[in-house]
Design brief:
The protein has 11 helices and 18 strands. By secondary structure, the protein is α/β, with parallel strands linked by helices. The protein has one domain: L-arginine/glycine Amidinotransferase, Chain A, CATH 3.75.10. The strands form 6 sheets. A 4-stranded mixed sheet has the order 3-2-1-18. Bound molecules: 6-aminohexanamide (KQY).
Length: 349
C-alpha cells in the first residue's frame, strides 16, 4: 500500500445526508465537505458519491471540476468504506474489506450498514480497478496508516475490539495486514483519542508525515484523560523500529481544548436506534492529526481554538512542498470523524 504522501490519481468522498449524524439536515456539514473537496481538487481529481435523492443537490453544491456520481451509502465516511488501494505489478487494485459500522451488533454506530459495505466493489468497478475480496475480515481505512516502505500503524483498542474480528488472534490479524497491505512491520499503539467512537482509529492520533517520521496528538494537561493515552502511544513509538530498521521520529501535534456538543447542536440531530445521538456537553474526538495529504496541499481541520495556528505551523514545517490549508471542521467533527475520515486517496500507478 503506497503511503498517503506519495502521488495520487485522485480522491473519493461521499456527500453527507443522514440526519442522526449531521445536525440540522447536514446543511453545515455539506458546506464543509464542499470546502474540503475544492481544496483537494486543486491538485487531484475528486469523485463525490451522492445518493439518488441528493444527486442534484450535490452536483449543484460541488464545483464543476469535481466529479459527482450517483452511489448509495448509509453515511459519508469514504476513508472507512471506499477501497484501500494497493499497488502490484504497476497496477492499482482495491481491497474490499468487510465493514460493520465500527463494531456491528457489539458496539456499532448504526444499523444497517449494507450500502456502505457494498461501496468498495462498486467504486473499483467505476474506476476500472481489480478488486481483492476480503469481506470476511472487518477493517476500516481509518484504522490503518502505512509509510509505503513496509510499516503499518494501528491501535489495539480498535483492531482487537470485540466487534471487529473476535475469532482471530493478534498474530492472525497481523498476518492479514501483511498479506493484503504488503507490510512487514506492524506497530501497535495501545489506544487513540479519548471518546473516539470508532474504538479509537489510528488516523485521529498518529500519522506518518514521511517514512520514519510521525505526528502524534499531544496534550500537556495531565488532568486530561488524553494525557495518559498520548503518553502511552509515545512510549510505544519510542521503543519501535520500522520495517527499514529506523527508530521513529515523533513530532508532537498539540490538541485543541476539549470540544463539546452544545444543546442547540444536539437538538439538530435525529435519534438513532431510538436513542439520542449525542448529548449536551459530550466531548468530541477533536484532533489536528485527522488531515488529508493531497498532491499539493495538506487539508487539516481547525476548531476555532488558540492551538489552530500552532498546529498549522507545525504541519507546514513538516510538509514544506505542500500548502497547508485549514478548514473550520466542527460540523464534520459532530458526525464523529474529520477530514481524513471523509476522504480516501487513489494512488498513482
Ligand atoms: O472514521 C470515522 N472517524 C468515522 C466515524 C463515524 C461515526 C458515525 N457517527
Amino acid at each position: 500500500m503506497p503511503a498517503e504522501f506519495e502521488p495520487h490519481q485522485g480522491c473519493i468522498m461521499i456527500f453527507p445526508e443522514r440526519a442522526d449524524s449531521w445536525q440540522y439536515g447536514a446543511y453545515a456539514a455539506r458546506k464543509a465537505f464542499v470546502q474540503v473537496a475544492e481544496v483537494i481538487a486543486r491538485s487531484e481529481q475528486v469523485t463525490v458519491c451522492a445518493s439518488a435523492g441528493q444527486y442534484d443537490n450535490a452536483r449543484a453544491m460541488m464545483p464543476p471540476q469535481i466529479r459527482v456520481v450517483e452511489m448509495e451509502s448509509n453515511d459519508a465516511w469514504a476513508r472507512d468504506y471506499a477501497p484501500t488501494f494497493v499497488k502490484r505489478d504497476n497496477e492499482i487494485r482495491g481491497i474490499d474489506w468487510g465493514f460493520n459500522a465500527w463494531g456491528g451488533l457489539v458496539d456499532g454506530l448504526y444499523f444497517p450498514w449494507d450500502k456502505d459495505n457494498a461501496m468498495a466493489r462498486k467504486l473499483c468497478d467505476l474506476l476500472g480497478k481489480d478488486v481483492y475480496d476480503k469481506r470476511d475480515f472487518i477493517l476500516e481505512g481509518g484504522s490503518i496508516h502505512v509509510d509505503g516502505e513496509g510499516t503499518c500503524l494501528v491501535t489495539e483498542t480498535c483492531l482487537l475490539s470485540a466487534g471487529r474480528n473476535p475469532t482471530l488472534t493478534k498474530e492472525e490479524i497481523e498476518e492479514t495486514l501483511r498479506q493484503y497491505l504488503g507490510v512487514s512491520t506492524i506497530i501497535w499503539l495501545p489506544c487513540g483519542i479519548y471518546h473516539d467512537e470508532t474504538n479509537e482509529h489510528v488516523d485521529n492520533i498518529c500519522a506518518f508525515v514521511k517514512p520514519g517520521e510521525v505526528v502524534l496528538a499531544w496534550t500537556e494537561d495531565q488532568k486530561d484523560p488524553q494525557y495518559a493515552m498520548s503518553k502511552s502511544c509515545l512510549e510505544t513509538l519510542e521503543q519501535a523500529v520500522d520495517a527499514k530498521g529506523r527508530k521513529i521520529k515523533v513530532h508532537k501535534l498539540p490538541l485543541p481544548k476539549p470540544v463539546t456538543m452544545t444543546a442547540e447542536e444536539c437538538e439538530g440531530l435525529d435519534a438513532c436506534h431510538d436513542e439520542p445521538t449525542r448529548t449536551p456537553g459530550e466531548r468530541l474526538a477533536a484532533s489536528y492529526v485527522n488531515f488529508y495529504i493531497a498532491n499539493k496541499h495538506v487539508v487539516m481541520p481547525g476548531f476555532g481554538d488558540p492551538a489552530d495556528e500552532q498546529a498549522k505551523e507545525i504541519l507546514q514545517e513538516l510538509f514544506p512542498e505542500r500548502e497547508v490549508v485549514q478548514i473550520y471542521a466542527r460540523d464534520i467533527l459532530i458526525g464523529g470523524g474529520n477530514i481524513h475520515c471523509i476522504t480516501q486517496q487513489i494512488p498513482e500507478c
